[in-house]
């Protein structure tokens, strides 16, 4: 079985490990690194995986190395493990850091190193993630298939061109925050209408969860689902008209554009 190394046992790293183990991956084939010995022990106890604070040791003979660290640390990690990567001819490196380009990572890694850039999102913490993957120029078809299969343990996967990554960030990577903000606003609206905050939170959160489940249950067609809720001259129609006249659609366009623009700026900093 392929050895999997996860560099960084934080929230995203743990979500990945949890999904892999739940999907039937043998825990003994996974090794996780973390600077904190206590945190490493927590992961070992929870999932039965190997842990270490030695990144080079972790990637020895690994087929896939997931970099689950902050964007600012990606290049330094690649420099740190370069010698070990040179000894592993078939290893593919997978970066889950936003904004770090393939070109900059390929420059920091040994020559010819296969690297995949991934834009994940936080719903992977509950197995409902959306991961967009852009393969680098040295990634083989078999390596890409393996990476895709592994990421499917924590949600859906789409293979995209790197040039689409800024738009992907706007529509998937950052998008959960948009829905959280909408839910937060609905909660506040419910309080304004006289509901207790606890009840308003339950109602708004359940509506968001249910709407998401409907989108998951069939071919995604949000317009048709919206129409199914909207009776002529009814309550929903009145609410939707107010949202449209208040410029909700235009605000979403502008927010997505700003998000993509910022993603491009961060990529330029790398």
From TrEMBL:
InterPro entries (alphabetical): 6-PGluconate_DH-like_C_sf, NAD(P)-bd_dom_sf, P5C_Rdtase_cat_N, P5CR-like_CS, P5CR_dimer, Pyrroline-COOH_reductase
Domain Pyrroline-5-carboxylate reductase catalytic N-terminal span(s) in chain numbering: 3-99
Gene: proC
Descriptive protein name: Pyrroline-5-carboxylate reductase
Stretches assigned to the Pyrroline-5-carboxylate reductase dimerisation domain: 162-266
Catalytic activity: L-proline + NADP(+) = (S)-1-pyrroline-5-carboxylate + NADPH + 2 H(+); L-proline + NAD(+) = (S)-1-pyrroline-5-carboxylate + NADH + 2 H(+)
Signal sequence segment: none
Lineage: Bacteria, Bacillati, Actinomycetota, Actinomycetes, Mycobacteriales
UniProt-annotated location(s): Cytoplasm
Primary role: Catalyzes the reduction of 1-pyrroline-5-carboxylate (PCA) to L-proline.
């Amino acid at each position: 079985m392929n050895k999997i190394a996860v560099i960084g046992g934080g929230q995203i790293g743990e979500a990945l490990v949890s999904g892999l183990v739940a999907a039937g991956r043998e825990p003994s084939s996974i090794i996780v690194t973390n600077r904190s010995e206590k945190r490493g022990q927590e992961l070992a106890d929870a999932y039965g995986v190997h842990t270490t604070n030695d990144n080079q040791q972790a990637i020895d003979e690994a087929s896939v190395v997931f970099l689950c660290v902050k964007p600012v640390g990606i290049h330094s990690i690649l420099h740190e493990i370069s010698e070990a990567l040179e000894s592993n001819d078939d290893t593919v490196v997978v970066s889950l850091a936003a904004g770090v380009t393939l070109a900059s990572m390929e420059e920091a890694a040994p020559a010819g190193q296969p690297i995949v850039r991934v834009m994940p999102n936080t719903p992977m913490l509950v197995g409902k993630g959306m991961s967009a993957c852009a393969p680098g120029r040295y990634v083989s078809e078999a390596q890409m298939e393996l990476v895709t299969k592994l990421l499917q343990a924590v949600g859906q996967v789409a293979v995209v061109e790197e040039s689409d990554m800024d738009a992907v960030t706007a529509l998937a990577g950052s998008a959960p925050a948009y829905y959280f903000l909408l839910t937060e606003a609905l909660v506040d609206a419910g309080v304004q209408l006289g509901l207790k905050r606890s009840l308003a939170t339950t109602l708004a959160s359940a509506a968001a969860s249910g709407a998401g489940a409907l989108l998951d249950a069939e071919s995604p067609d949000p317009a048709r689902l919206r129409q199914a809720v909207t009776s002529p001259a009814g309550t929903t129609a009145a609410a939707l008209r107010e949202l449209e006249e208040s410029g909700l659609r235009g605000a979403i366009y502008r927010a997505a554009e700003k998000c993509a623009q910022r993603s491009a700026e961060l990529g330029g900093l790398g």
